[in-house]
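QA checklist item 7 of 12: single-chain prediction sanity check.
[x] sequence parsed
[x] length recorded as 244
[x] structure emitted
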Amino acid sequence: MLEDSGVIYVATGATYRKDAELSAQSLKLIHPEVRICLFSDAASSSGIFDVFVKVENPHARSKISCMGMSPFRHTLFLDCDTRIVGPVLEPFALLERYDFAICLGKNRHPDKMAIKGYVTDDVPAAYYPYNSGVMYYRRSEATAQVFKDWAEAYHQTGSKLDQIPLRALLWKRPEISVYNLPVEFNARELSLILATNDGLQLNRVLHLPLFNTRWSKWRRIRKTLQKFQGPLRAARRLFDVFSR
């Protein structure tokens, strides 16, 4: 399976390229055998990448266009602000049956979805968005068309969030099969990272603001600490229930 599978990063600019190198290094510690492709406007001198593809005319969401050009039949796309802390090859087997394997996004509260711009008349509120920072997908005519349509919709809508047009696109294309991965493959909340028990798998991919060096150190720490709000809200709700 690994002969046809690999991981890609899309990182334009020196800062994102450095973040991609750090993420790729954490991946190689877990899977030294996996092949990694870097899409960037300049090559990396780290030696961590096996394939390099130059990105011409990069923009804020170059990843959408590059994902469709993956050199692998089965691809894992990773955002640069990730760290690999467990095995991540298992979901490649899902791509023999599914077009995509993705985790749901964290913004699923109706008010939050409305603020972010997800609420539209043609997509049910219960169809929650996917997080595009960790995506497994297979190469096919169907997925190639998804990436093409996604890129066009992103540029047409002018949204800062690429996940908004992706959500609408997948809703309108029910023939595209998507497997909902468990959260440990895209752990974005400290409450989920810390709240583990014997029935849960250990986290595989940490996806946190702490790893985004485009921001200052203190902003990264502040935004990461905000992820503790989940346990505090849960504790408050329990208190309200039992104090009635």
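[x] summary fact logged: The mean pLDDT is 85.
[ ] second reviewer sign-off
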